[in-house]
């Protein structure tokens, strides 16, 4: 597999906020994606992905039993809901920005995509006598 693979193919995301801090939950669509995402979606890579928002710190919390990660990004909400003039003072759309993260087409990523594709293939109805 070649070309650009976006994170949304292998994960869901949710966003929350508290003051000037954004909280981004990233949940794998299939358990097989966890190791691949753990390798590529690091705190440093997420900080680089959100560079335009100038996070002062990004921390990743691993949740392996949930096949999920939690990212906390400090100072990305222009002062927070009450201080920001931005249209999205809560940072809810940041989850969509995270899902636009490009993944390298490593063997682990392509295997996770194959697992996902196999689970979502339509099944043929059984014939009845």
Query: Percent of residues in beta strands?
Result: 25-35%
Apparent shape: elongated
Taken together, the total number of domains comes to 1
Which structural category fits the helices and strands? alpha+beta
Order of strands in the sheet with most strands: 2-3-5-4
Number of helices: 4
Kindly state the number of beta strands: 6
Could you outline the blueprint of secondary structure elements for this entry?
Blueprint: E1 5-6, E2 11-18, E3 21-28, H1 33-40, H2 43-49, E4 57-63, E5 68-74, H3 94-99, E6 102-103, H4 107-120
Antiparallel strand pairs: 1-6, 2-3, 3-5, 4-5
Helix pairs in contact: 1-4
Short descriptors:
129 residues; 6 strands; alpha+beta; single chain; elongated; 26% strand; four-stranded antiparallel sheet; two-stranded antiparallel sheet; 4 helices
